[in-house]
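thought: fold this chain, then report.
action: predict
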Amino acid sequence: MKNKSFFITTVLVVVLAFVGCYTVPETGRSTFNFMPESMLSEQAAMAFDQMQQEAAISKDRAANERVQRVGQRVLAAAVSTGNLPPVETWEFVVFDDDAVINAFAMPGGKVGVYTGILKIADTDDELAAIIGHEIGHVSARHGNERMSQAMLFATGGLALGYAVKDQDETTQEALMLAYGIGATLGATLPYSRLHENESDEIGLMYMARAGYDPRAAPRFWEKMRDQAGNAPPEFLSTHPSHETRINRMKEMMPAAIEEYEKSSNHR
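observation:
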């Protein structure tokens, strides 16, 4: 028993030694980051370069110019208020795949936008909502938090496995399965939805400060809702439901409109 306690205590001490606290801009939420952000940025840059070598890059001049124009303008507003990587490290790349209705962001400021989502976001204001959301993920360091959480759960699983190693095989398997399900439903999925909601909030403020009308954000998600097929229940999903996103954005709209009207780019 002493050996078990010593092992578990040692593991927790090692993990906690690497914890770094971070306050998310705009929301003020405190997060834990185990990984050096510089290391994640380097890894993301290599992965993004690899993606560009393997995936089709859009040759549509208008689409590329549009993403660059909107992306740089939202980024300029975000950098002035958030803790973000230097402007010169950011990349906005359009991937040519109409079947993929998505965009993504990596640590360090690597943003990919698929042509499929550009067909739905048919105004610059709607595109600004998408890009603001992706910049929000980087600003909040969600990638670091997800990796840190995965490390923590892996450590917990290792500690649990050691603690029950003297149990019969069936009991061990049942306990490990329960741990995995509990971690997924109790933490991994809820945190993923929290990240999406948080990026919606951050992105709404960024686009508003850039002079893009934040009322376009819920309109865009209404279009996404209308074209979406059957979705799993929200508690089993990595993303909040469209209705949840739309309603939350409408709740945040007065503050976003205030920022929009103060913006020097307000048209």
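thought: worth noting. Residues 181-191, 232-237 have pLDDT under 50 and may be disordered.
final: tokens above.
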